[in-house]
Amino acid sequence: MAGQKVAFIGLGTMGYPMAGHAAATHDVTVFNRTASTASRWVAEHGGSAADTPRQAAAGADVVCTCVGGDPDVREVVYGEHGVLAGMAPGAVLVDHTTASAVLARELAAAAAAGGFGFVDAPVSGGQAGAESGRLSIMCGADPDTLAAVRPVLETYGAFITHVGPVGHGQLAKMVNQILCAAAVEGAAEALNFALAAGLDTDQVLAGVTKGAANSWYLENRGHTMIEGRFDFGFAVDWIRKDLRICLDEAGRLGAPLPLSALAEADYQRLQDRGDGRLDATAVIRLRSEESTAGDG
Hints:
By secondary structure, the chain is α/β, with parallel strands linked by helices. α1 (about 15-25) packs parallel to α6, α8 crosses α12 (about 260-270) and α8 runs parallel beside α13 (about 285-295). It has a six-stranded parallel β-sheet, with helices on both faces. About 55% of the residues lie in helices and about 15% in strands. It contains 13 helices and nine strands. About 50% of the residues are buried.
């Protein structure tokens, strides 16, 4: 089913390259709140840009959203200019935003009322995964609905996992973010310890990344954490937003998340000092400052 008509709403760090991959084999119309970004995307990838989400969704087989959070999704989906107002019966809405499972179920009900399908399909793999087209996509949907949109998802997703019904994609992404937060905190604590001990950190990383302690963060962010470089990657603002979603859901489930609560508090501290746009690994700054305070 190559060559579907696709609308892609949201051209941020992730959405911009994802829509670009889709445009290689599908007819893509984009919408972005900053119109100049949409114009630049069209200049690079072809396709077309629309003035509203509704216009982008008109006539599309698949409508993908990839925006900031629950309020942003509602803004582009509902209302006179939202995608639901422009979609035709039989089309499928795919939400790639990391959002709440509550919202996913809400969107599925709204889509069904209009005769549309719905897939909650948050992604993992970061900017590098989006640019290389090798994202992991966790999908909550009816199997037939997912099958209908799979040709689009396969343009930017190397690993597409059907984890269950609507809402389960977002729940699986929460598992992902809980693990990521713990990995970042562990890497920050361990690498700060290595620095305090005066170890050769290149050799330490060479050793620990070959054993059971290895993680994506150690391999891809270990050196940048040690060097104090954080002007890239997955921002503190975004991981804190995701952890708030995890903690809210955990409260409903009665599942304790002590490490996630610790990480969320650290990210709030970074936001409070104006570091919200830095990469999440900037949490090592807090550990370093605590070490210095201890020396005093």
